[in-house]
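Supplementary notes for students who missed Thursday's class. We covered one full example, reproduced here. Read the sequence, then the structure, then the short commentary at the end.
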Amino acid sequence: MTRLAGYAALAFAALAAGACGTLEPTVPEARPDVPAKWEPAAGAAETAGAAGIGWRDFLASPKLVALVEMALANNRDLRVAVLNVERARALHQIRRSDRFPSVDGSGALVRSGGDNRDTTSAYTASVGITQFEIDLFGRVMSLDRAALERYFAEEENQRSVRLALVAEVANAWLALAADREQLRLARATLVTREDEFRLSGRRKELGAISALDHAQARTLVEAARADAARYEGQVAADRNALALLVGGPFDQALLPEGWEGPVTRWKGVPAGLTSELLLRRPDIRSAEHSLRAANANIGAARAAFFPSITLTGSAGTAAGELSGLFKSGTFAWSVAPQLYLPIFQGGRLTAGLEVATADRDIALARYERSIQSGFREVADALAFSATLADQRRALEATVEAASDADRLTRARYQAGQDSYLGSLVNQRTLYVSQQGLITARLAEQANWVTLYKVLGGDWKESGP
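Structure (token representation):
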């Protein structure tokens, strides 16, 4: 037992010897060269909690919230991201286990004999360590740290997929709402124009209008018919897109019947946002962890230039009979430390360090690039937030004016005070303005969803 205790002390001494620093360089500081804050858009206003709120607090429609819940539970892309996190965690655990000795037990029977030899038996039972590297220069620790940072990066990638999925479901829901509203408008317009076309046919028979006026009325009918057919197909495609995102069957009552108003709770454009908000975006945080992993690999590449010591040892018993295996006087032990000293590698170690350094510099450039891209995405969304609102208000006024003009020209045409051409032009103007208003509402709401996403949103279900 005293010898076993001494052997255990030797193992712990090896662990203590391996608990030293690493040769990793300092992680370089990113210099993305972006402004400290975004320029405020025209009409910008303070919005409390503009960043960092949960998606439940951000989305206003209960039906959309229910669809997002189902997507987060069933979407296959998100499931792959979750499994990638589990895989990275397991890989880190494998790498981390290299920092500790693997203790194995074994038992063996060896029988030997021959024509001129007696048959003999040898029984052994032992517990030992095989090829345990004493981490003198931190090589194993650096590899462990690199695996840990890759695990953190996969976690951030998963959060990024969750955030993107929330935005994709919201945008698909908005697209379906807008297309159903367009379909409703096209069908209502088709009914109205078919009625007018029948009336124009009677007026033509009576000689009240020319054949040209009747043909022009038909062009409006066929244009509305074509739009109705086009939007029927688009609505079906939108439903298919939502089904793919949700990842399973869902209640059709959760789909919008048409335009149901804003789907987000934000009422104004955030003003005075600092670019530090980008550091909360999961894709940028993933790039940062990838940079740290690449930097840790430099430490492992540097440590490869120095000697390494591996330890193999065992302690147990040996006897000629199985019954005497654990009797007094059968204890046996062995220790076999091995020193490895690189002398000539043909440039392999130097090239390995150069590769690790280049990988670190690439990761740094990607990190800076992700910050620059994020800054631009937020700047674009902020710029559009004010202009899209102005565009929507202008189209609302246009629809109102076009409705009045259409009503007046119809009255003048029916009274014989104006030609059918004037009524035709105003009908087209009203229809195009109504279509443009639906598109503007979709773009405005989709931009709010985009702004929530590019600001980093929140991967939690609700805000603080």
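Commentary. DSSP finds nine helices and four strands in the chain. Residues 139-205 form the longest helix (67 residues). If anything here is unclear, bring it to office hours.
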